[in-house]
Amino acid sequence: MAEPTPAPSAPAPTRAGSPSLKDGGTVVPVREILWGSAAGAHKYETAEELEPEMAKLIVKLMVVQADTEFASIQQHRPWLDSAPTLEDRWIESRIVADEARHGLQACRILRDFGEEGQRYIDELLAKREGEHKLDAFNMKFDTWADVGAFTCFVDRVGVYQLRAFQECSYGPLARAMPLMLSEEQLHLNFGASVLRRMVQDGAKYTGSKEEAQGAIQKWYPRALDMFGHSNSATSRRAIEFGLKRWTNEEARARYVQEVSALTAKMGLELPPDGFDRRVL
Ligand SMILES: [Fe+2]
Ligand SMILES: [Fe+2]
């Protein structure tokens, strides 16, 4: 298999004067494919234009995406009217509304794939708690600290996955990213603020530093697993197709760097590398 084009840290558009991507920054929408084997060509705009392997990969990616969105609604649901403060309840309801919209957005892309796409949507809507693809989405939020750690760590992985699709080669997917990313940013900030308040204010807010730390032990390994296997051929194919900017291990390494600094700032600790991991 050919080596993937090293787009992430040093995007290398093939055409002179092409706009470049800046990590985490705002990007100007562009019509051409910025990386991968078709770099420089026009982006794909319809399912019909895609070669079968690429179409299959987009469907697979969107099914996983939508599954996580719908699952997290089920996980948040019990906290809509039992979060500790009025503001927390309001943000919980915003998060649930956002995740429903993200699920809808992923399903709209699936609809473009005809009967097969619709069949996946029907399956997604029938899934109950415990039936989802990724382990992080089959676990319950037993405590409020779970809500904080999930939104801070698991939603943040979601953001890395979405950023990897920014300005990707499939136009309908690329155009869905800016709004989804701005909504996810609220979820991350909220999660960090829940953990910070637990550490700083303890029972005056709710929970304790120990509870916050316990929730990190529970969710951080599942968050790292979400990036997928380090030697995934699928993730390399996704880069060649211009769909993703990073391999699984590149994205995971960036994430670890970010959350290490963030966790230390909150006065909390990350478990050691490899702790309770299932997907390596
Ligand atoms: Fe989401
Ligand atoms: Fe989210």
Helix and strand layout, with pairings?
Blueprint: H1 52-76, H2 86-111, H3 114-126, H4 144-165, H5 171-201, H6 209-225, H7 233-240, H8 248-265
Helix pairs in contact: 1-2, 1-3, 2-3, 2-5, 4-5, 4-6, 4-8, 5-6
The structure holds fe (ii) ion (FE2) (2 copies).
The site of one fe (ii) ion has 5 residues, from helix 2.
Q: How would you describe the overall organization of this protein?
A:
- Helix 2 (86-111) runs antiparallel to helix 5.
- The protein has a single domain (50-265), classed as Ferritin, core subunit, four-helix bundle (Ferritin, Up-down Bundle), CATH 1.20.1260.10.
- The protein has 8 helices and no strands.
- The protein has helices at 52-76, 86-111, 114-126, 144-165, 171-201, 209-225, 233-240, 248-265.
- The protein is globular and about 55 Å long.
- The protein is an all-alpha fold.
- The chain binds fe (ii) ion (2 copies).
- One fe (ii) ion is lined by residues 69, 99, 102, 158, 184.
What would the principal axes of the Cα set say about the shape?
A: globular
Number of domains: 1
| Superfamily (CATH H level) name | Ferritin, core subunit, four-helix bundle
Q: Regions with pLDDT < 50 over 5+ consecutive residues?
A: 1-18
Order of helices and strands: HHHHHHHH
CATH class: Mainly Alpha
Termini separation:
21 Å
Q: State the major sheet.
A: none
pLDDT averaged residue by residue: 92
Hetero compounds: fe (ii) ion
CATH architecture classification name: Up-down Bundle
Query: What is the strand tally?
Result: 0
